[in-house]
Amino acid sequence: MQNHETVTVTKASLPELSEYEELIEKLWENRWLTNMGMYHEELKRQLKDYLSVGGIELFVNGHMALEMVLKAFELKGEVITTPFTFASTTHAIVRNGLKPVFCDIKLDDCTIDADRIERLITKDTCAIVPVHVYGNICDFEKIEAIADAYGLKVIYDAAHAFGEKVGERGVGTLGDASMFSFHATKVFNTIEGGAVTWKNAEDKELSDKLYKLKNFGITGKEAVEYVGGNAKMNEFCAAMGICNLRHVDEWIKRRKAVNDRYARNLSHTEGISFLKPREDASRNYAYMPVLFDGVRFKRNEIYEKLLSENIYSRKYFYPCVNAYDCYRDSYDPHDTETALSISERILTLPIYPELSAEDVDRICEIITG
Ligand SMILES: *Cc1c(COP(=O)(O)O)cnc(C)c1O
């Protein structure tokens, strides 16, 4: 038996060390380490272009970006969102003093089921926070129509959707605003980092507010206008982003090759299925979610079987947010049956640019064998 190395579910992407050194060396000269320095400004320009958005503000991480954009819209009341997401989405809503109302998801792509949103709207509803989960773009046309009819804000959690487009349109232009995460585990990283983006380049009010929110509400040398917090991206993170942005297209290409190999190996196996993202949207292959039928293939058994071979997959997302200890007194996960069922049958398999074809084949053999 050949000895195999541990395979993790993801691996942070990095530039060559020399490439990063070349940039950060300058920080020893100018001693400007944070507070909207030159790399912060440069990354902001480059990302605005890369993401094809009208406006962008950078943050210390994706979570604070989401908390602050919700705050910027001065929302009150209930927010319709999905329970099939990372803790951050719901926590950001609750930490703004808002009440999450969970809407079930679609079986085919795991995004919020827009056909079930309207029945959850009450006189207190102020916004919808959908998630482009696994980079699968939501049914934004329907969501927009509902939001328009009821006067609701739409803020997308686009943490998984870096660089994706619908037609020619950057996903970060959908709704009133979108949040991206640049965490180490994401397709594009700044070590830790995040951004809020929006469509209208003229929307100075939103950029102004976000800027104040992330920098203590300081507006001048002797003026503090606003009760803000601290959520700025520092220069070391911004420099990492500038380096990584040079390589991200290549990384996405390699992720696609990994994705396609899994699909080729597993798509004809009864009891195993893949999600179906919108065909009019590009993909970044951030995750490799696989759905098991629970009969021929049991998710927890597959997870353990892989683990016994030192292969780390992830029950992503399990449990659903409405089943968390901190939320379950107020919610019943059975109210969102599809999300509950998928959370018990889904597994995200290892995927990162350097994952070899041999490893993918071996993982598939362990699953089906
Ligand atoms: C990663 C992630 C976040 C939070 O981003 P951080 O940069 O880690 O703060 C929010 N929502 C989803 C769906 C995520 O995957």
- In total, the number of domains comes to 2
CATH H-level homologous superfamily name of the largest domain: Type I PLP-dependent aspartate aminotransferase-like (Major domain)
Strand order of the largest sheet: 1-9-8-5-4-2-3
What fraction of the residues are assigned to beta strands by DSSP?
Answer: 5-15%
Q: Radius of gyration in whole Å, from Cα?
A: 21 Å
Succession of helices and strands: HHEHEHEEHEEEEEHEEHEEHHEH
What is the fold-level CATH name, i.e. the topology of the largest domain? Aspartate Aminotransferase, domain 2
Helix content range of the residues, please? 25-40%
**Helix count, per DSSP?**
10
- Associated small molecules: pyridoxal-5'-phosphate
**End-to-end distance, in Å?**
16 Å
CATH class (first level) name of the largest domain: Alpha Beta
Mean pLDDT: 97
The assigned CATH architecture of the largest domain is 3-Layer(aba) Sandwich
- Shape verdict: globular
Global structural class: alpha/beta
Count the E strands: 14
Largest sheet, described in full?
7 strands, mixed
Which ranges are low-confidence, i.e. pLDDT below 50, for 5 or more consecutive residues?
Answer: none
